[in-house]
Structure formats: C-alpha cells, structure tokens
Amino acid sequence: xxxxxxxxxxxxxxxxxxxxxxxxxxxxxxxxxxxxxxxxxxxxxxxxxxxxxxxxxxxxxxxxxxxxxxxxxxxxxxxxxxxxxxxxxxxxxxxxxxxxxxxxxxxxxxxxxxxxxxxxxxxxxxxxxxxxxxxxxxxxxxxxxxxxxxxxxxxxxxxxxxxxxxxxxxxxxxxxxxxxxxxxxxxxxxxxxxxxxxxxxxxxxxxxxxxxxxxxxxxxxxxxxxxxxxxxxxxxxxxxxxxxxxxxxxxxxxxxxxxxxxxxxxxxxxxxxxxxxxxxxxxxxxxxxxxxxxxxxxxxxxxxxxxxxxxxxxxxxxxxxxxxxxxxxxxxxxxxxxxxxxxxxxxxxxxxxxxxxxxxxxxxxxxxxxxxxxxxxxxxxxxxxxxxxxxxxxxxxxxxxxxxxxxxxxxxxxxxxxxxxxxxxxxxxxxxxxxxxxxxxxxxxxxxxxxxxxxxxxxxxxxxxxxxxxxxxxxxxxxxxxxxxxxxxxxxxxxxxxxxxxxxxxxx
Length: 508
What we know:
Layout: E1 13-16, E2 77-83, E3 90-93, E4 99-102, E5 106-109, H1 115-127, E6 134-141, E7 144-151, E8 157-162, H2 167-173, E9 186-189, E10 195-198, H3 200-206, E11 220-223, E12 232-237, E13 243-246, H4 253-259, E14 267-277, E15 284-289, H5 291-296, E16 311-316, E17 325-330, E18 336-339, H6 347-353, E19 367-370, H7 382-388, H8 396-405, H9 417-422, E20 436-440, E21 446-451, E22 457-460, H10 467-473, E23 486-489, E24 496-499
Parallel strand pairs: 1-21, 7-11, 12-16, 17-20
Antiparallel strand pairs: 1-23, 2-3, 2-6, 4-5, 7-8, 9-10, 9-11, 12-13, 14-15, 14-16, 17-18, 19-20, 21-22, 23-24
C-alpha cells in the first residue's frame, strides 16, 4: 500500500522564551474563549435573465409545425402533388396579398388562417378542376419577415425573424433584456390589436411553449420595466431553486413552484406556508398550503391565486436521508469515507473498520476535526487569549506561538490518540458525528525548538528525551535566554504548558 506522506505542520514545539532584561513574563492568563465569526446567511435573490445564444435560424424549426396552430402568411411556400398524374409536384408561394395562384384554378386566399385551413382551401379549389384525383398539399418552407422590438431591451428596433422563431429569439436579436427589463410580462401586440403576454422565466423553468409563442408579421414586442423591490413573488426553503420572481397577474401556487423548479426531495408537502401583506405597511397574514393537492391537481382549491409580494415557505423533512459519514485520512490500512450505521460509530470502531493503524502512524500528531462545528465551536486554547491581546503586551515566545498557531483549524475535537490506541484505554474513545474528519499522519520524527536558542528549528526526535536534550541539539541557549521560562506546545492538543529542562518531550 502506498504510504501517505502527511508531515503535519502541527508538530510539537518547545518554545524557549528569552525574556529581555527588565521584561516581565505574562502571568496567569485566563484564556477566555474566542468565538469564530458565524457564517452569513444568504437570502435568495431575484433570478436574472439567462444570457441567450443568438444564432441565425435559417428558418430552422424547433419542432414539427402544428397545422392547427401555425398561421400562414406571405412568403410561405406550399408544394402540391396530384396523384395519378405523371406531372412533377409544383411549388406555390403565398403572395404579399395573402393569396396563392394555382395553375388552371386561380387565386386562393390563405393569409392569416391556420395551416390546416389553408391546406383545405387549396385542396377544395383544386378539386373543382381535378375531381377524380387525390391531392396532396404540404408546407415546404416557412416565411421570413420583420417585427419591432421595443421597451427595455438593449437595442430596440426592427429585427428579421421567421415564422419558426419565438419571442425569446426576437428579444435576443434586439440585444437582450436590460437589467430592469421584464422577463414575465412581455407584451406581444398583433395586427388585430389583440395582445399576448410572453413569460420567458416560466418558459425557461418549464419549457411550456405557450409562454414563449411563435412570431408572425405585424407584431410589436414591448418589454416593460419592472420594479426592483415590489410586485414580486418569492419562494424559500425545500425547493430546487429558491428565489425571487417578478409577479404576473394570475400567478398561482403551482406557477411559483414551477419557477422554483419544484419541491426538493426532502420537502414536507404537508407543511408549507404562504405569507401575504394585509396592508401597505407591515401587516401580514399567513395561511397553510396543501402542496400535495396542488401537485396532484392544478385546479384544486389549494392552488391559491397569488398577490404581489406573496412569499411561500416550504419546510424540509428533518433528517431526510442523512448520509452520516466520516472521512479517515492517513496511515491506516484502508483510508477513505465510512458510513455511520444505526446512528453510532466511535473512533476506535472506525480505525478497526479501516484495518487498523500502520506501523508508521503518529498517534501524537493525529487529530479529529468536527466539520459541522466550524462556524460554532468554541476552541479553548492559549492561542485564543493571545489573539485578543495587543502585540506590544506579548512576550517573544507568545508572539512566536501566535505565528505558529494562526493557521490551525477550528472544530478540533479533544481526543488523546496515544491513550486510546497506544495504551488501549477505551474510556478515551469518542463517538463520531456526520462530517467528522480523522487524520492520522506518518511519524515526523522531529521536534521544533523555537525562541532564544542558537539554531531554532526542527531537530531529530529521540525516544524519552527531555527538553534539555533538544535545546542542546538546537545549539544551546541563546543570548539573554530566560532558562526558567520554558514552555511546551503539545502537538495533538495545541496546549501551552510550562516545562523545565527535565520534562520529557513527545514526537511532533
């Protein structure tokens, strides 16, 4: 097995504090707790319009033309075949007046009617001449035309589109929406002065094509400006994409769920709440929402019609499929990720499941980090107190200690690997929690000597050696060293303790 090289920087350190003449040592530090800065809770923000790819369509279709929906206009081309006659199929184009000219028949009006109606009109006209023939009529080419795009787009004006294009493509050709351009209330005015409303946000979330209709000549697209703060609807909690969305008249609970890409797997469908303003200040009311009924039937009474600035909160099921696993790194036979089964796994059991410790494992340098407590754990170490003190009040050894410990991880669990695995004292075993990380580095075979010695730095480790031994290896005491103020930093715990020249020093 490939050995893991984990020479940890958390080596045990002897600090020989050299106090200058007349300088007093720090006395009786109380070492209060230093609370890590809590993580900032981020709130969902308004979903921005995605950048749309603009490519020449070349009359490309995104799906087969629906004869019941497609509106025929000038520039469309039909191909006509008379079956039972050797003549080749003929092509006829819809003229600017909205008619096609059929040989031996005359003009047939097909403009501004559905494709199904236009095909029937052409067939009926031909059958007056060819009564005994089967007639085939098909749309061979869709037309191109110009429309106007106005309002809150980057480049308002006239764009060239085809009958196969949708509102989103025309908006993209006009440079896309401005920052305050509406995504959900885009107005599409027709020649007959009827107005459709395109909802690009809903189309992007659901793919419902009616929210992004096809274009035809004579239409004008207008993109209104939306408010930064008001006329919104919001969804929070156990949904796949929480967010703030522009309000559209007629929105219902099902629409807001769709904009949030639906409930997440852990959503509690029986515990949703809608909050609504009851006045124009701070008055609010809440009402329960039966999401099961909404998802089962959009026509259900539970599918409430929304009002501007409504907020939907979807609760999550507690402990839904919690994976509960820990990570073991370093000098064990099988490092990796291990599951916590039936809610219980201890450190000793973890090492046993991993095949045991390897001979080169360093118990004095091993550590256990509680990842779930990074933002809340209160780590009681000497470093906390020093960090809160003014640097002009720190002694040399305290300044050096501050430097050495400034990069230490929060969330470290107090566990003595030497007592648990070296001396087999099971009372030092500890239960593991989801996300815990256990690191067992290889032996460093070194001790760090810092402060006022001749040659500070790493020196080789020797079994049962004392402080005096390592000071001698570091060249002995330096100028003005205070031989009565020696401190030892334990590798595993980071604890700063007083020591004398006869104190035994552990590896690392």
